[in-house]
Amino acid sequence: MELKTFRGGIHPPYQKEATANRATVEISLPAEVVIPMQQHVGAPDSPTVSVGDRVEAGQKIGTSEAFISAPVHASVSGTVKAIEDRPDFTGALVQSVVITPDPGQPSKWTDKRDTSNLSADQIRDIAKEAGLVGLGGAAFPTYVKLSPPEGKPIDTVIINGCECEPFLTCDHRLMLERTDDLIAGLKLMMKAVGAQRGYIGVEANKMDAADTLTAKLAGEAGIDVSILEVKYPEGAEKMLIDAITGRRVPPGKLPSEVGVLVQNVGTAVALQDAASTGKPVIDRVITVTGPGIKEPKNMLVKVGTSIEHLIEQCGGFAGTPGKVIMGGPMTGWAQKDLTAAVVKGTSGVVVFDSASVDVEEEQRCVGCDKCLDACPMFLMPNFIVKYAKVGKWEMADKFGVNDCFECGCCSYVCPSGISHIAYVRKAKAELTAAEKK
Amino acid sequence: MASQDLIVSSPPHLREKGLMGSAMRDVAIALIPLIAVSIGFFRLYAVVNLAVAVVTAILCELVMRAIMGKKANIGDFSAIVTGLLLALLLPPAVPLWWVVIGVVIAVAIVKELMGGLGSNLFNPALFGFATLMIMARVPLQVSYNLGSIDGVTTATPLTFIGVGSGPLSGFRPGYWDLFFGHAGGALGEVSVLAILVGAAYLIYKGHVTWQIPASILGTCFVLSAILGENPLYFILAGGLMLGAFFMATDWVTSPDNRWAQIVYGVLIGVLVVVIRLYAAPVGAVAFSILIGNAFAPLLDRMFVRKKFGEVKAVA
User: Fold this and answer.
1) Are B17 and A358 a contacting pair at CB < 8 A?
2) Interface contact A376-B308, CB threshold 8 A
């Protein structure tokens, strides 16, 4: 069978063996949970509770009136200990609600109701009320994506089960462990946008998940499993749409431009959970792994749990930690300490011990063109860097810096060890600032 | 927990390792067939020239980087490759101190003084060679044209370019000699086959794309035919093959975008034909590529790559 794919990209070592076959486990409660008021793309929320308040798990504790936003909920039952600015996983200070959990947590959301009769509007409301955002990492509010713009009908919904980031296996586990809910979640999304076609895109290194899904989908009209080449970034929205449907989203446009909606595996499962039990997004599956972790695991984690607690739950560090990354190793954020909290979009924590950290001294670009071949957006990353270095932002723009989605393929193949993404972010910020003037 | 020791850097946190060293090493490996044939024909002359060039290149790099307070960088193989290429550009009987001067210009001045690998506008080996061509024009020309050391070498096959089908054309070497092995001209002119074997390896390894050599050779073939030359002889003779596959494709000094590479190749091809036919055949390829180098940055700006999903605006 010929595997579907896109042009460009790279083949990093996947290193998923440590956790791919480990079932998701629940972990003990942390001493406190830190819930940032901004875990999503869009406007931040304002707290609706005060210090000293008792809160129930699933209770809304932050809201916003803005269209592009998502409410946040208490992930545990307990007492509000503080409302203060805390650094999030990017290092930015974000207003956060700190909750001390009760020693015993109530069991909730066990009754399931049938979701097949929900209307499109009801599904959107459920997504909004549950604070659902893209759980693959982008954290874009789901109900916004489920409300396609006028005149741009969506005919296809794609569930992204590529999990092309090395090391991570949380989506893989969800596809195996929550197969029925995943399919039900996809059907809800198709109904919400009125799409007739559904796909679940799975990379060929997760054939157990693909086979399980295919078996469950037997006799199901309109939904197919699409097996994709194992290549990074296969799961990038535009690449995935191209690979599965052959449609290419134009520069600067959204997938709705070509009639497609893409959602992550975790988002589909969470939508089904919210629709069937009323459970908002207060926990998620994440993978804690890497050569610097003693016992790598897939675990169900409450939003607001610190990295430190996760690492303790995995038996601690193996060796001296060199780099702790929130997210995958290609796009994740290196942490300066272990205090940052898991948010809705956190897919994993990857730890490299000091011996296995890739440190490369940045050299001059030698014009090898390897970044041009690797770039899935067909940009010229070396030129973007060249102009960003001398502050020629408009030239960086001409070479497509705003079309870069920061997958990091260019830096992966760069023989000069250039960190393109640092320059890209700088150029984007400068261009945005110039536009505002 | 000793968290203050954590390394914080921008993503990606995975890198392919040792790429620079392996890429330049591959270029050196790709030159092995040519070097072997060259040594087969020129024996000690080739061995000594190549050795002197490589040793000088390494010394130049070490000294220059030490003076400028930079870390030694021999592991990236780029100085070694430059030394090898320069020796291959020169005829076997050249005085050794010319080899040394050529390499000093190439590595110490054109590469390291310009800021090191990646900062040079011009191909270091070709620049060193071109400087020698100007400084020692007459003796170099003579040694290319007559050769005749130990009766081993003969004149460069370039002598027969521009003679058309006149009486001299009967003396020129045949295609098969040029292809498989022929002792004439520079060390690097001995065998087209050996160059193609090395080039195939570089293309297979992904270090070189077909666009530049194909457009240079294609342009030379067509244009020389139009101007009444024997096109096959034209592209097989002299340093054109070595230049097209190993010099014009130099990462640093060639354009990066595919369309820019094709235009760059065509430009070099036209220059080679014009210089060979209307100026001097020896050094034509070198001067053409150096002029091409100067155009490379402009060409990259003129031919910005078409982005993913970009379609031509309908007017």
Assistant:
1) yes
2) yes
Instruction: State how far residue A332 is from chain B, nearest Cα, in angstroms.
Output: 6
Whole-angstrom CA distances from A78 to A85, A99, A307, B177 are 20, 6, 20, 88
Residue B20 pLDDT grade (very low, low, confident, very high; cuts 50, 70, 90): confident
Residues in chain A closer than 8 A to B65 (CB atoms):
none
Domain harbouring B98, CATH code: 1.10.3430
Q: Using the structure block, give the residue that is written with the tokens 């988002």.
A: A267
Residues of A (231-250) whose Cβ lies below 8 Å from B: 238, 242, 248-250
Quote the CA–CA distance of B184 and B190 in Å, as a whole number.
7
Helix, strand, or coil (residue A72): strand
At B112-136, the pLDDT tens digits run 998 888 889 999 999 999 999 888 8
Per-residue CA distances from B103 to B79, B87, B262 (Å): 9, 8, 30
Domain that holds residue B46: 20-301
Chain B contacts of A347, Cβ < 8 Å?
none
* The model scores a pTM over 0.95: no
> Which residue in chain A has the smallest CA separation from B253?
A367
Chain A nearest-CA distance from B249, in A, is 10
Q: Is A299 helix (H, G, I), strand (E, B) or coil?
A: strand
Judged by CB atoms closer than 8 Å, whether chains meet at B8 and A325 is answered as no
In a domain, B13, yes or no: no
Cβ–Cβ gap A331/B11 under 8 Å: yes
At A277-305, the pLDDT tens digits run 999 999 999 999 999 999 999 999 999 99
Q: Which residues of A touch B206 (CB under 8 A)?
A: 370, 373
B223 lies in a domain? Answer: yes
| Predicted-assembly ipTM surpassing the 0.90 threshold | no
- Tell how strand A333-334 and strand A321-326 pair up: antiparallel
What average pLDDT does range A31-37 have in this prediction? Answer: 97
Using alpha carbons, select from A231, A228, A205 the residue that is nearest to residue A9: A231
A403 neighbourhood in chain B, CB within 8 Å: 307-308
* Nearest CA-CA partner of B141 in B236, B285, B281: B281
Asked if residues B15 and A416 have their Cβ atoms less than 8 Å apart, the reply is no
Please tell me which of the candidates B5, B6, B251 has its beta carbon nearest to residue A367. Answer: B251
- Whether A79 and A54 have beta carbons less than 8 Å apart is answered as yes
The Cα–Cα gap between A31 and A28 comes to 10
Residues in A touching B256 (Cβ below 8 Å): 367, 369, 372, 380, 382-383
Residue of B3, B16, B23 with shortest CB distance to A337: B3
- Domain contains B15: no
Asked whether the beta carbons of A403 and A409 are under 8 A apart, the reply is: no
Q: Is A104 exposed, middle or buried (0-12, 13-18, 19+ CB in 10 A)?
A: exposed
Q: Total structural domains in chain B?
A: 1
Which residues in B lie closer than 8 A to residue A320 (C-beta atoms)?
A: 2, 5
| Cβ pair B98, B136 in contact under 8 A | yes
What chain A holds in terms of domains, given with CATH numbers, is 30-102+282-353 (3.10.20.600), 119-277 (3.40.50.11540), 370-436 (no CATH)
* Listed residue (B132, B154, B165) closest to B41, CA to CA: B154
Residues A253, B278: Cα–Cα separation, whole Å: 54
Per-position DSSP letters for A23-43, written without gaps between them: PPEE-PPPS-EEEES--SSSS
A89 in Cβ contact with A340 (< 8 Å): yes
